[in-house]
């Protein structure tokens, strides 16, 4: 993974880093579970709250349950959003002139089954 990043996925998951706009994408043991790690260059020094607002506009996220977290990769925001069909859990971090979004996406019916794996992936992220 480029930019001095480290990310681990649990057994049964697969990593793919061949897509241009994402640093890495990963797939769970079932097709309804997947995720991406994106790096967004920032025009100027910005905080994670402002980065979150920018992403919310870009991604069309209207409502998310948000909380501050301290993960191995540093201080950030954790978003949880979605509805009856799909759920999303996204870790947002800012490092220097870049924002990072690590998102897990899963169908609602398997959410509870894979949320722990998703959490493990988020805690495995390290940024040099």
- Uncertain ranges: none
**Largest pleated sheet:** 7 strands, antiparallel
Strand order of the largest sheet: 2-3-4-8-7-6-5
Question: What proportion of the residues form beta strands (DSSP E)?
Answer: 35-45%
Broad structural category = alpha+beta
Q: Would you tell me the overall average pLDDT?
A: 90
Write the element-wise H/E pattern from the N-terminal end onward: EEEEHEEEEHE
Global shape: globular
Number of helices: 2
The percentage helix is 10-25%
Radius of gyration: 14 Å
Q: How many angstroms separate the termini?
A: 12 Å
> How many beta-strand segments?
9
Account of the protein in words:
The chain is 20% helix and 44% strand. With 128 residues, the chain is an alpha+beta fold. The radius of gyration is 14 Å and the shape is globular. The mean pLDDT is 90. It is built from 2 helices and 9 strands; from the N terminus they run ββββαββββαβ. A hairpin with a 2-residue loop joins strand 5 (65-71) and strand 6 (74-82). A 7-stranded antiparallel β-sheet has the order 2-3-4-8-7-6-5, sandwiched between helices.
């Amino acid at each position: 993974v480029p930019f001095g990043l480290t990310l681990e996925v649990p057994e049964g998951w697969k990593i793919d880093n061949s897509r241009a706009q994402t640093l890495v994408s990963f797939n769970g043991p079932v097709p309804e579970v997947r995720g991406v790690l994106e790096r967004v260059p920032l025009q100027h020094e910005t905080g994670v709250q402002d980065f979150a607002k920018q992403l919310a506009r870009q991604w069309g996220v209207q409502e998310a349950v948000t909380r501050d977290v301290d993960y191995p990769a540093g201080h950030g925001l954790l978003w949880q959003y979605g509805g009856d069909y799909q759920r999303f859990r996204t870790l947002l971090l800012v490092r220097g002139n870049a924002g990072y979004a690590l998102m897990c996406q899963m169908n609602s019916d398997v959410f509870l089954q894979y949320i722990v794996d998703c959490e493990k992936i988020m805690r495995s992220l390290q940024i040099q």
